[in-house]
Amino acid sequence: MSDSSPEIALPLAGVRVLDATSNIAGPFGGAVLADLGAEVIKIETPVGDPARSMSPVDGDRSAYFHIVNRNKSVESVDLKSDEGKSRLNQLLTSADVFLTNFLPDRLASLGIDPEHLLAKHPRLIFGNLSSYGSTGPDAAAPGYDATVQARTGIMHVTGEPDGNPVR
User: Fold this and answer.
1) Is there a domain that residue 155 lies in?
2) In-domain check, residue 121
3) Across the beta sheet with 125-128, what order do the strands follow?
4) How far is residue 63's CA from residue 54's CA, in Å, rounded to a whole number?
5) Could you give the CA distance from residue 66 to residue 60 in angstroms, rounded to a whole number?
6) Which residues have C-beta within 8 Å of that of residue 55, sequence separation ≥ 6?
7) DSSP secondary structure, 53-121, as one string
8) What is the DSSP secondary structure assignment for residue 129, as one 8-state letter?
9) Domains identified in the chain, total number
10) Per DSSP, what are the bridge partners of residue 62?
């Protein structure tokens, strides 16, 4: 049997995504878009994504980093420098989507909050992952998987029946 079937285009082929997320949850969203055919460019600080050092580590990447950053190219951009801001703006001119999981005050201090970016790039889709939503008392609070599990009570169903919850 020969493999002469035509190649099927993935649904997001031709879509360009800038993924400025870090750790696990944010980059996972970008990985799904890449799996669906989008060109995803991970924007990473010069220090690197904290997920690079999550155990188990192979070289400069952890298994977690490999999983949630699959099918992406990576570009190091210092968003605090004028050169980095210029590079990001250059990348944004051809981007369809911008993903981030920065806290609101950090977005504003870097000038990459929705108001600033959409004024310059009105066709851009801006996606921001927040642990506690965009409004309410914890909107500006950082959160991670274990924190959210503990606060919601779902951690209670983990671990051994007679033991403590585990993450």
Assistant:
1) no
2) yes
3) 72-76, 39-44, 16-20, 97-100, 125-128
4) 8
5) 10
6) 62
7) GSSSEETTEEHHHHHHTTTEEEEE--TTSHHHHHHHHHHHTT-SEEEE---HHHHHHHT-SHHHHHHH-
8) -
9) 1
10) 57
Q: Which residues contact 101 (CB under 8 A, 6 or more apart)?
A: 21, 22, 23, 25, 26, 128, 129, 130
55 part of a folded domain = yes
Residue 55 belongs to domain with CATH number: 3.40.50.10540
Q: Is 41 within the bounds of a domain?
A: yes
Rounded distance between C-alpha atoms, residue 6 and residue 56, angstroms = 39
Q: Which residue in the block uniquely carries the two structure tokens 């949630």?
A: 68
Tokens 């703006």: give the residue.
89
DSSP, collapsed to helix, strand or coil, labels residue 19 as strand
> What count of other Cβ atoms lies within 10 Å of the Cβ of residue 75?
13
Please write the tens of the pLDDT for every residue from 44-96.
Answer: 999 999 999 898 888 777 999 999 999 999 999 999 999 999 999 999 999 99
Q: Which of 37, 15, 160, 7 is nearest to 98 (CA)?
A: 15
Whether 3 shows a pLDDT value over 80: the answer reads: no
Q: What is the dihedral of CA 20, 71, 56, 22, to 10 degrees?
A: 10
C-alpha separations of 141 from 15, 69, 105, 138, 152 in Å:
31, 25, 10, 5, 15
What's the pTM value of the predicted model, to 2 decimals?
0.87
